[in-house]
């Protein structure tokens, strides 16, 4: 049964919709279009929902985050927050298409909204910025305001620090405001620190490097490297605006030129500032620019940037519609401190560039940007970061995918010719030729099935890795790669300025099998669109006419006539165009092609039996055409009145008409009324009638006579009978009293309706021979149309100020049923139609096409009711039971002999669930389904892949870190990592490689068997993994962490501009054990500086401390005294000097500086000491104040504390994740069943068996009952009873 549900299809966007778009973790994207929100599935390129409740234009759209553990109580949902220009924020249930909640702050507009992540307390918290400077924390589940903070500066937008939930940065109109006390429990107390930005004046000479509160902004491409170094060293600091004396040298630059401000998502302490011609990267630890991406004059300016998290890369959108991808250049690592004389005060540039620089890796082709067609937003898939969508102002959405092509690495001699360093893939596969040698290895699983690359992290390796390891050709498995953008999809909305719409002929018993509910739209620019009303998708588009389309008439289910002409000039003449279009073949046939300029066509009407059509002109006689042969039959004489409206008699009358005409011939009584005249349709004398009937008998059998009616400007009605190739009869009926000029006609069965310029509606009942007039009191009636369907006499009238639906009551009088006012309740209506017997369809001037229910009020329905041509894989749209069971089947199947992608046999109540799961399984990409049964690293890798396709942020991070540390624990167990021997500076910069596990001699017998060695080497190489990306911050392995921190200190050293800055560098060098460089910096202090004496003494202390061991106790005593008296950082430095970093970390923790203690522990302590500290940190994260258990889990994973992880997962009721993790650990042979852990494992299995029972998966539930000890046996009995 074809049932049409209410829905809205949107057209072009409003300027205020710019930037109102978002791509969610759920895999769908949403964007604002006027006051509607469109939701699109990017995989199948379909609009799957349009949300309608906002009264003003939508200005912000944000998908709810998925960073929580999903189960039956916390299901996968499609939750969306949108804000409009009136300040109303709506939280939507996208699947159902209705608003769950609506709230606002005294109707103040909204500048920006963001869901609050980075905390486990609640996933319903939404932060909104209202102009001029109010920040509000809302509970988006209840609509309550938790707190409101008003700042002192006008704020434009804000960004949360992804590494520290307390930090927020605001972009103001004049300055940047930082706050570091954001919590959900209480209103931030401080007004934040303000920073101003200034630029060296163009006329001033060389600006001295002074401690002004400024950061330069302008960068001319011709400036020398010295100048560049100076510009880069500008500082962003201070509470006050730059002083007058400084301003003589520097112009203060207002921030309103700044297009965007955002925290970097893969590097801690970095902030991105975007201007039209350059992008600045600021390091917030030193408040300085550490990188600039400048656009040259010929390139297109920036419009927006999206920082990536999986890799240190930035996606940039340019004004010409092009997208570029920039990847962080690997710096020549500075493990050795800078030499004497190459400090910050020396003008010679350093030999190594330490600046944060990004290389352009690929660029898409620019688009054709015109005044009417601009890019209104860029969205990036947050799961893969390799798919980009652009929303255009003309309603198009363009999809680009990032692809990687293998290239040969240039040899070292030619490397200098390549300005950019080669990019490398992560390399997760062994070379094919080694698979044979390792054929007897059971785990990792070796197969020839290709790993399904879907994300940015699969394409390019981590940022901090040196490209290829030239010493060991076998160890570097990544190969060189080039990136490029491919356009993979284009989605069109409704065309702009729709002038007319026409529904195809209605559904009947005869056309039921091949019927498609299509509506044709004509537009101002001559474009024709075919839209499928049941699926809500634009089906086809034709650029046929060169001027405005004025009308469309279907001549069959697949063909229609359309006519167009431009607006007439002073002469009143135009060039009329008429085409017959076949939508299956796309073939168009021109009708009346040899015409000169003439009077414009006012209507074209096709007869009900599709034999003829009439063309009415504004100032020219009516023409009658044969539709089959497309030839003219007759043009009425010139002296005949000009028509104002025409209508063909409905086809039901073909049978009765013969009878009526025969009756009329016998009937010689004079006519009493115009309606009598109509019903007998003849005012001819008897002989004429007889001749016409004889003609009819002899005329060709192929044609049936048809009738049409026209009215002239006086309201006179003319009734024509058309038969064969002539008009055989004309009847003239005098005008109805009280009617003005007739503007439109409608005819169904025995009812003929007239509408006039004054809004009077007249109904002729041809059967009852009665005429009634009804005033509509709404002015000019533009259109009357009966609804389709037998015995359905509903009709609408279209007016300038809205639409009215009428019906006949029992007495046969017409009554108003429903109405809608425009533009009060809906934008101005430009045309209306019936999509079905109770589905009016309105098209408005803002380009939206509404299919409404009969009340004209509701035009949205659940996604299930959109009859989509292509089914979509979306676990968020199915029931929570189905999505959980689907995830469980995909992640692991130890209860089956072999892994297969089929739903289990379920109870009768759950047959629908079973069908749903099988449908979803069939929609998964084949490259993934072929790899899933043979994942190289078993359950852990499978869970990671499933987290990606489910868009489960929490799962994705857990399994990324888990898989990395499971592999590294096998490659080189942490417990066997070398402990700190002597301090770092004693070792100098020698790198002592640790012994890999396969070479360790566990006893005195050394295996010299080369095959054995080769096999061990192979297995070990398989486990070797590349470091985690920097976005995981303190979770990455300590070697990579320390290397990165040394790089940062070297960069800070290179950028020194003030004394405080130098002291900060000294402190970090001392903490990291780089004492020689610390001494150098301390000795650089100028003699007239107040700290000169103290710095000299510190230099002596640092230099001499190594030689005398006896002084250690004194120094420790001094350090503890300093700490006790509030000099924490000085005390900690002293402790680090005497190799007491562990004590230093403990003091930092005691005094609440957790971040610093973790940083110090990661960079300086050995595994055992670090473990103890990090465990304390994990406990701190689990505390009720912090409530970041999800992060604590990852910290424990990074320590290799796998048993503790299982314990914690059990405590957090993440039973499915706990079971998968236990299985993964067993596959890696890193966890055994022992007496100590048996009770925990059994408890986990028991709860998981309960969970599976609730899902209705009997076989899996029984499998885990058997593993869950005695309690499992009890549950097993319950399961058997439940499923019988």
From TrEMBL:
Region (Disordered): 195-227, 672-700
SUPFAM superfamilies assigned: Putative isomerase YbhE (SSF101908), WD40 repeat-like (SSF50978)
A Pfam family annotated for this UniProt entry: Beta-prop_WDR11_1st
GO cellular component: cytoplasm
WDR11 TPR domain location: 928-1234
Regions crossing the membrane: none
Domain WDR11 first beta-propeller span(s) in chain numbering: 11-173
InterPro entries noted in UniProt: Beta-prop_WDR11_1st, Beta-prop_WDR11_2nd, TPR_WDR11, WD40/YVTN_repeat-like_dom_sf, WD40_repeat_dom_sf, WD40_rpt, WDR11
Domain WDR11 second beta-propeller: 516-789
PROSITE patterns listed in its UniProt record: PROKAR_LIPOPROTEIN
Polar residues biased stretches: 195-213, 678-692
Name used for this protein in its record: WD repeat-containing protein 11
